[in-house]
């Protein structure tokens, strides 16, 4: 195809970059990631320092508004979120329509989208205060929906929050309080979850975040854009990997612990199997989140006195894979999802809820990216394509085909 024809077809020169491996879709001041050096920073602060010294509500504020909050700002922000946490009772009717066997990611995506129907004033945001309201609403209501997705599956009555508690404590109570027994908060579990949520909070233009930005670029509302992000996160190549990892480790355990067999399978180019929780589009050295989570998993299991043979399998598998030429040549390392499921399981989260927990952690990143995109007045996201189909041909009536 000559350049003149290309221009007339495309309106200009386009690049073809399947999977956007070398294409930046936007300018962003939120998250810095250096895949070669294994560096991840939110608004300039290293993930190591934030995971160690900060808490989730502070990180939410930092990601969305750009600075760590003062203690007054933190209190007010948390209060504003709490004041918007009630979910319309009619949303429960939608939940009732799902079978108990429904995957909670599908339920969460549908209920999040349904919030647009119950909060129509949050769909069209024309001022920063509208935007702030919509942000507090989704931050308040999302943990309620997550807990409902879980309680539906477990056959438990639905719960509302307790505004005297912190964001993570409140979430734990909504999830696990039984109608017949008071929920006793375990600080080890709260700390572990707080850390996990911080580690998942943003990761620049990954698949789900790009989905949120592109859906939002049409001026679809925040809740609808987040719902699109949840669907994108669900897949096994993205957030769904945390569920896939624990299922893989369980399979290895049931198979007598022979992880070498699975490593060989992953190397076999005629076998579609991949080591779940290994490899990353950007990290080509190590995933700093995985390093922090590995240590946290050991600590949590120790503190809770849990001996999980699956952690031994994970350790052994990682060690062997990391010294294997196939994985070395391709720079394949354990990613954030490799060890996170071990912690989720230790703190009582069932396997189908793992990716939902990822969504709870990623929510502030999605919000921050959506807000940045709207404030920057970015144009609608609309990639081009390289057409490779048929050239013009005459229509053939059905009886002549
Ligand atoms: N097991 C075995 N081989 C792998 C794996 C793996 N987990 N990951 C990549 N490879 C191989 C590929 O087969 C390919 O080999 P080749 O060069 O011989 O063809 C090479 O490594 C490069 O892989 P790509 O698929 O081109 O890398 P890409 O950047 O497109 O994919 C991804 C990244 C999707 C994360 C991939 O590594 C993968 O599928 N991992 C397993 C799923 C997973 O853990 N996902 C979670 C990612 S983190 C997150 O989203 C939160």
TrEMBL record:
One of its GO terms (biological process) is tricarboxylic acid cycle. InterPro entries: Citrate_synth-like_lrg_a-sub (IPR016142), Citrate_synth-like_sm_a-sub (IPR016143), Citrate_synthase (IPR002020), Citrate_synthase_AS (IPR019810), Citrate_synthase_bac-typ (IPR024176), Citrate_synthase_sf (IPR036969), Citrate_synthase_typ-I (IPR010953). It catalyses: oxaloacetate + acetyl-CoA + H2O = citrate + CoA + H(+). Pathway: Carbohydrate metabolism; tricarboxylic acid cycle; isocitrate from oxaloacetate: step 1/2. GO terms for molecular function: citrate synthase activity. Keywords: Transferase, Tricarboxylic acid cycle. CDD domains: EcCS_like (cd06114). The active site is at 280, 337. One of its GO terms (cellular component) is cytoplasm. PANTHER family: CITRATE SYNTHASE (PTHR42871). Belongs to the citrate synthase family. This is Citrate synthase.
């Amino acid at each position: 195809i000559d350049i003149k024809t290309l221009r007339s077809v495309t309106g200009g020169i386009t690049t073809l970059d399947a999977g956007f491996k070398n294409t930046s879709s936007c300018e962003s001041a939120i998250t810095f990631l250096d895949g070669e050096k294994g560096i991840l920073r939110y608004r300039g602060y290293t993930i190591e320092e934030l995971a160690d010294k900060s808490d989730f509500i502070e990180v939410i504020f930092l990601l969305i508004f750009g600075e760590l909050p003062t203690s007054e700002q933190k209190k007010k922000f948390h209060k504003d979120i709490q004041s918007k946490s009630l979910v319309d009772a009619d949303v429960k009717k939608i939940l009732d329509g799902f079978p108990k066997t429904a995957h909670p990611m599908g339920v969460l995506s549908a209920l999040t989208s349904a919030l647009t129907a119950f909060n129509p004033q949050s769909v069209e945001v024309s001022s920063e205060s509208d935007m702030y309201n919509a942000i507090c609403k989704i931050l308040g209501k999302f943990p309620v929906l997550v807990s409902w997705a879980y309680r539906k599956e477990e056959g438990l009555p639905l719960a509302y929050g307790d505004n005297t508690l912190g964001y993570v404590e409140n979430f734990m109570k909504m999830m696990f309080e039984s109608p017949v027994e008071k929920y006793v908060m375990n600080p080890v579990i709260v700390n572990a979850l707080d850390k996990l949520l911080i580690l998942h909070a943003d990761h620049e233009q990954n698949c789900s975040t790009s989905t949120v930005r592109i859906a939002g670029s049409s001026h679809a509302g925040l809740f609808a854009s987040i719902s699109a992000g949840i669907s994108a996160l669900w897949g096994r190549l993205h957030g769904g990997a945390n569920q896939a990892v624990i299922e893989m480790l369980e399979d290895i355990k049931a198979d007598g612990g022979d992880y070498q067999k699975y490593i060989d399978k992953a190397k076999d180019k005629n076998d579609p199997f991949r080591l779940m929780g290994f490899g990353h589009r950007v990290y080509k050295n190590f995933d700093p989140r995985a390093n922090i989570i590995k240590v946290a998993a050991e600590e949590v299991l120790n503190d809770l006195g849990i001996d999980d043979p699956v952690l031994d399998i994970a350790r052994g598998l990682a060690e062997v894979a990391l010294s294997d030429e196939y994985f070395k040549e391709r720079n394949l390392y354990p990613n954030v999802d490799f060890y996170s499921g071990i912690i989720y399981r230790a703190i009582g989260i069932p396997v189908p809820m793992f990716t939902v927990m990822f969504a709870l952690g990623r929510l502030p990143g999605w919000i921050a990216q959506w807000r940045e995109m709207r404030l920057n007045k970015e144009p609608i996201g609309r990639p081009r394509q390289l057409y490779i189909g048929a050239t013009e041909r005459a229509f053939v009536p059905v009886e002549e085909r």
